[in-house]
Amino acid sequence: MFDYYPEGWINDTPENRAALQNISALNDACRDGQILEGRALICDSSHNLLVDLGCMKGIIPHDEGALGIREGTVRDIAIISRVNRPVCFMITSFQKDSEGHLTALLSRRAAQEKCMEEYVKKLTPGDIINARITHLESFGAFADIGCGIIALLPIDAISVSRIDHPRERFTVGMDVKVIIKSIENGRITLSHKELLGTWAENVAMFKAGETVAGIVRSVEPYGIFVELSPNLAGLAETKEDVVPGQQASVYIKSIISSRMKVKLVIIDTFDYSYRPAAPRYFYSGNRIDRFVYSPPDSEKEIVTEFASK
């Protein structure tokens, strides 16, 4: 299966730059049906995109701006939001203006159709692919999985440790790995937490008796949940004036594998604004069928099944 990438991934590659070098190279790309990228400079009043091709001007007509634009199932914001960003496209033809200057006619829609047929439609649950975060909502993150084709990563699939908003994990433009969770009626749902390691892999980074950094995730009547890593949280004893979102220094009192428990004591908390770091992945393969988060000696088994039934 040929790999397709999120928009922006190939913009600065030698192959893409070479294809935009001169008219002859653009002609070759047109003949071969090559997918290229260039930066969108302007969206005009008719919502056509003007694209910088280096050696000439390129135009993506409104109806060719994205899959679904022509049918009315996708709003024009999908075009407008690409201004000053890389866009993928295929060259469909060339035309001369009244002064004899050549303009390349481009289609982002055609690039997305090719990506859909040759790549997206061949994906199955459990496949691990590259993605780029495009925008964040309270219920999840939207990610480009290839040529501007968007899929949803629900908030509860981002990490084992619960968060209030995806911005606590991601920033727009961040490149991540994701797993195809489900495909229903053409809609793709993603997952992410299974790539962040099992309970055992995460707890191995810590030892009882250490004082470490954490993030307060929730304050309950029976204790305070503190995140030690995106896939690991411990329970601390109650303490006054602690609120979710604070950074914390916590003492690790004990680690109980059979119950997947990390008992903590909060030493100090403070407010701190931070920018999410790139995720650390424990799994590097290109497919996962079954993920077992819980350790072998645990009283409870926590499993994610991805294999198609």
UniProtKB/TrEMBL annotation:
GO cellular component, one term: ribosome
Pfam families on file: S1 (PF00575)
Source organism, top-level taxon: Bacteria
Descriptive protein name: 30S ribosomal protein S1
Occurrences of domain S1 motif (ranges): 126-193, 209-240
Keywords, alphabetical: Ribonucleoprotein, Ribosomal protein
Coiled coil: none
Alphabetical GO biological process terms: translation
Biological classification of the source: Bacteria, Bacillati, Bacillota, Clostridia, Eubacteriales
Protein family: Belongs to the bacterial ribosomal protein bS1 family.
GO molecular function per UniProt: mRNA binding; structural constituent of ribosome
InterPro entries in alphabetical order: NA-bd_OB-fold (IPR012340), Ribos_protein_bS1-like (IPR050437), S1_domain (IPR003029)
